[in-house]
TrEMBL record:
Name of the protein: 6-phosphogluconolactonase
E.C. number: 3.1.1.31
Pfam families hit by this protein: Glucosamine_iso
Job description of the protein: Hydrolysis of 6-phosphogluconolactone to 6-phosphogluconate.
Gene3D superfamilies, alphabetized: 3.40.50.1360
Family designation: Belongs to the glucosamine/galactosamine-6-phosphate isomerase family. 6-phosphogluconolactonase subfamily.
Pathway: Carbohydrate degradation; pentose phosphate pathway; D-ribulose 5-phosphate from D-glucose 6-phosphate (oxidative stage): step 2/3
GO molecular function annotations of the record: 6-phosphogluconolactonase activity
Organism: Neolecta irregularis (strain DAH-3)
Domain of life of the source: Eukaryota
All residue ranges annotated as the Glucosamine/galactosamine-6-phosphate isomerase domain in the record: 9-233
């Protein structure tokens, strides 16, 4: 069963998220010598940054950063998830540039190629598909949309059934921009630690659906079910106002 933490104030939420990520980083580096993390877009990069940028104990040189999803746009475009993360995080901490995996700008016109080339980056870091059937990220950081989408996995989309590719293209995202790439559900749910972050009134209804009526098969519910106790929700009291799902007290 997932863990739900709800915080009165957004800055306390961010600092708790930061503690969670720092612990995952410490434990992964101790166990495997590095920390592999996938970031989403939306408000997540700045929420994460608030909780970690000032921490001097983080071993940034051991971080390998991927994107849970990315829009097929130039890296300096306002729609780029990379740009969000660059502004909020990468520009402020010394993660080695060659350990930050952005999409390849040469393939923006062909989302299948864009996804395949990005998958090759995963293969380089996690080893070949023949050796590692599914890459296991140390930490997967996700947002959730009001429709229950997460990454670029949208409700009722055929992509939810993809179980061979690690990275898939999508050309018809209901949320603009339509052309994107995304980690597949298989990869997302295989991570050691999976965290959702949701804040504000606009998340009230979707939290009730995802946490209380998982049978609707929404992408965020599927991650919740498949990830089980590896899934942690960081929400604010505004977002969790309507849910009766049991909340835990945050202690780390
Ligand atoms: O690619 C996208 O369309 C966004 O990145 C999206 O997936 C985002 O993660 C959610 O909509 C939640 O965003 P917020 O947490 O900012 O509400």
């Amino acid at each position: 069963m997932p863990t739900l933490y709800s915080f009165k104030q957004k800055d306390v939420l961010c600092s708790a998220l930061g503690k969670y990520v720092k612990r995952a980083s410490r434990e992964s580096i101790k166990a495997r010598g590095r920390f592999t993390i996938a970031l989403s877009g939306g408000s997540l990069p700045s929420q994460l940054a608030q909780g970690i940028v000032e921490d001097e104990s983080i071993e940034w040189d051991k971080w390998f950063v991927f994107f849970a999803d990315e829009r097929a746009v130039p890296l300096n475009d306002h729609d780029s998830n990379y740009r969000l993360a660059e502004d909020a995080l990468f520009s402020k901490v010394p993660i080695p540039r060659d350990q930050i995996f952005a999409i390849d700008q040469n393939f923006l016109n062909d989302t299948q190629e864009l996804a395949d080339v990005y998958e090759k980056d995963l293969v380089r870091v996690f080893a070949a598909k023949e050796t590692v059937k599914i890459p296991a990220f140390d930490c997967m950081l996700l947002g959730v949309g009001p429709d229950g989408h997460t990454c670029s996995l949208f409700p009722n989309h055929e992509l939810l059934r993809e179980n061979i590719a690690w990275v898939s293209p999508i050309e018809d995202s209901p949320k603009p921009p339509p052309r994107r790439i995304t980690l597949t559900l298989t990869v997302v749910t295989h991570a050691h630690n999976i965290a959702f972050v949701a804040a504000g009134q606009s998340k009230q209804d979707i939290l009730v659906k995802v946490l209380e009526t998982p049978d609707e098969g929404l992408p965020a519910s599927l991650v919740n079910q498949m990830g089980g106790d590896r899934v942690t929700w960081f929400v604010d009291d505004e977002a969790s106002k309507l849910t009766v799902f049991p909340k835990k007290e945050f202690k780390l």
